[in-house]
Design brief:
Helix 3 runs antiparallel to helix 4. The radius of gyration is 18 Å and the shape is elongated. The protein starts with a helix and ends in a 15-residue tail after the last helix. Helices cover about 65% and strands about 0% of the residues. It has one domain. It is mainly α.
Length: about 210
Amino acid sequence: MQGGIIMKKILFSFLILFILSACSQKEEIDTDTTEDEVLLSTQDVKIPSVIFTSEKQNSVIDEKEMKLSIKTYLDSYEELSNASEPFQEIIYEDKELDKEELEKFDKITKLTKENDKNFSNYILNNTLPEGYQKESERISQYITTVNETLDEIDETVSNSMDDADKGDIPKVNIKSIFDKIGVVNGKEQKKIEDFLDKKKIDTKAFGRHQGKE
């Protein structure tokens, strides 16, 4: 179980952002990744074809369906998160996404938001099995906040690059980002993983399938 994967990703992104806010010269940011390696990784990205969807409203959800719903939501989150990483790396390295990359990244971002919204509506507008409401809301809030945090960092990094190019001091809304990071912490993730273990919900989220064949 790798409970720190999400936090490591956010903290790394925040470190890049901190460097940008402290330095006005983008040349000070170093990278070991070559342009060819980045381009190859984006070309190989396959946009996930499945996200969580449900048209159910005011229905009583049984436990079997609920477990599958959580698994689908978390698996989709993991696949979308992995697919977005090569594009985020380009942004952090002060490189521009070409038209094809922009289209891919925009589609991944759109699917991520749809996945979060669909699951949130599902758990709020239906009657869940006993013992699932609170933990499902915890999962929804946690994953949605992770995605919003990374999205805000991506946008801020991009805007900071533009400011630096113009000779302006990058403006960073540190409070907004820290407020979100306060929700995304190891204790919350452990509670989620303990719940998944208790209910025997098998998901690839949080790196839980790493090392399994």
